[in-house]
Amino acid sequence: MAVEKKAKGKIEEAAGKTKEAVGRTVGNERLTAEGQAKKSKGAARQAKEKTKDVFKH
Prior knowledge:
Elements: H1 2-26, H2 29-56
């Protein structure tokens, strides 16, 4: 289960990076901000799962 959540975080982070890059390319500040938020959310999800793993062992 934790592997799935880590993968979901990685995918979310990658999608955020893509959205942010597209937003910068077309000059859309809103799209850029949404991408940054999604990227941060994915990174936070990964960090949470890594922390859980540390306390399991």
